[in-house]
Amino acid sequence: MGKTRVPYTREFREQMVALVRSGRTPGELANEFEPTAQSIVNWVAQDDRDAGRREDGLTSVERDELRRLRREVKRLAEEREILAKAAAWFARETDSIPPKSSSS
Q1: pTM reported for the whole predicted model
Q2: Fold category of 1-57 in CATH
């Protein structure tokens, strides 16, 4: 299993992108700072998507919305499963109750 670490802050990623835009290479920055050159390249590409300079992927806003919608779909599916189980349980329970007599 790979190493896990705290994600880089937005400010740090923005600084790396600004340094690349000022002429530094991702490789130089990777040697000087902790993230890999590929991570820095990815941050620059995402910044380009967010600014409308690229159209080869989702913007950050679209990615956040997709993440939110996937969570909501998962929650709704869980709720539907619970309701289906409850309906099946109630159906079994109501079938086991003897019919009421009309002579009461």
Answers
A1: 0.70
A2: Arc Repressor Mutant, subunit A (1.10.10)
